[in-house]
Amino acid sequence: MATHHHEGDLPANVSFGASVAIDTETMGLNPFRDPLCVVQLSDGKGDAHVVQLKRPEYNCPHLKGLLSNPRVLKIFHFARFDIGMMQHWLGVPTFPVYCTKIASRLARTYTDRHGLKDLARELVGVDMSKAQQSSDWGADKLTDAQLAYAASDVLHLHEIKARLDAMLAREGRTELAQACFDFLPVRAALDLTGWAGEDIFAHS
């Protein structure tokens, strides 16, 4: 298991096959105020790549190309936030996508605990630390603890996805989940254009 730290962009010689697990670290939760700082990626085989983005130019053509490559599935936990952040700051759409939080909500209806830490513990037996969740991701130099935290957020997403896929199939909700995933880029676009807190499908 190795964590690779890259400054500015993902190296051109790094490939992820048919799917890649992705997460982001930002300066906060407001996409218009809080910059995107770090994007971490994993092939699901134990390696993690942590890309520390250079602001404000965000010159990262290899990362941007991966995000919008239609042949590579991007696996997230709470994709709505991550793809909105990347759309706003990197200026590229992210597709196709899979969201373990949505999959969990559709498959694990016996609980209201759908956080990544909860999924990792129940589905793959991993106890994740969230100690670095609220730290300065805009720092010039990331600490070893920050790099380890960033890597941990993507290392288990492939395995979690596999467990959730089996549950979705068992409950007959695979197609419904896929429809939700297909809608996620639109949901992120709604967030960025003024409908973040409004349910446009509601009657009133």
Give a description of the structure.
It is a single chain. This protein is α/β, with parallel strands linked by helices. The protein has helices at residues 61-67, 79-90, 100-107, 116-124, 144-155, 157-170, 174-192, and strands spanning 2-7, 19-26, 36-42, 47-52, 73-76, 97-99. It has a single domain, classed as 2-Layer Sandwich (Nucleotidyltransferase, domain 5), CATH 3.30.420.10. It has seven helices and six strands, in the order ββββαβαβααααα. A six-stranded mixed sheet has the order 1-4-3-2-5-6, sandwiched between helices. Strand 5 (73-76), helix 2 (79-90) and strand 6 (97-99) form a beta-alpha-beta unit. The mean pLDDT is 96.
Radius of gyration: 16 Å
* End-to-end C-alpha gap: 51 Å
Oligomer: single chain
Overall geometry comes to: globular
Strand content: 15-25%
The largest sheet, given as strand count, sense and whether it forms a barrel, is: 6 strands, mixed
Number of strands: 6
Q: Do you know the CATH topology?
A: Nucleotidyltransferase, domain 5
Number of helical regions: 7
Low-confidence stretches: none
CATH homologous superfamily assignment: Ribonuclease H-like superfamily/Ribonuclease H
Q: How would you classify the helix and strand content by structural class?
A: alpha/beta
User: Mind telling me which CATH architecture this is?
Assistant: 2-Layer Sandwich
Any idea how many domains?
A: 1
